Amino acid sequence: MDHESIDQESTPRATEVLRAGAWPESEARDSVLVDFDDRFRRRRLYTGQGGLAFLLDLPEATVLREGDGLALATGGFVRVRAAPEPLVEITATNHEHFARIAWHLGNRHLPTQIDGERLLIRDDHVIVQMLEGLGAVVRKVSAPFDPEGGAYGQHNHDPGQRHGHHHHHGDHDHHHDHDHQH
Fold this sequence. Notes:
Elements: E1 13-18, E2 28-34, E3 40-47, E4 53-63, E5 69-72, E6 77-82, E7 84-91, H1 95-107, E8 113-115, E9 118-122, H2 125-133, E10 137-144
């Protein structure tokens, strides 16, 4: 959508995020369907599925999760819906195997969703080959992606990051002294 063609003065502004279950869903005026990359924003113009154009205008970039409510300054809410994306479902033979696979993914700082007895990651042929080499069962699926936030907050959200080993540790502060072994 052309941001210049929208009159931002008359466009409703969403200025607060209320987590799923913490806002009155009966007051939803619309919903917005967004993929993972589009759910980490501070300021952006969206158009809801029902046609409501609104400006997300938050004090800082925030991860929007499935079911969150965006509070409109004019009243009402817009419900966040996580869009299905091409993902890889990973399952293991037992709990120890599952933990080993999860460790390898975490060691690469890959955004990973833990969903019961399966892990979900974005499709990446290099990582899929590694997982198959570890004996994991991998299957391509389409599902909403809602990865774990990480032990140090949301720093693992990097839309361009696919292999995890391309980022520089100087770009963020873990607030802890430790070394990474790659």
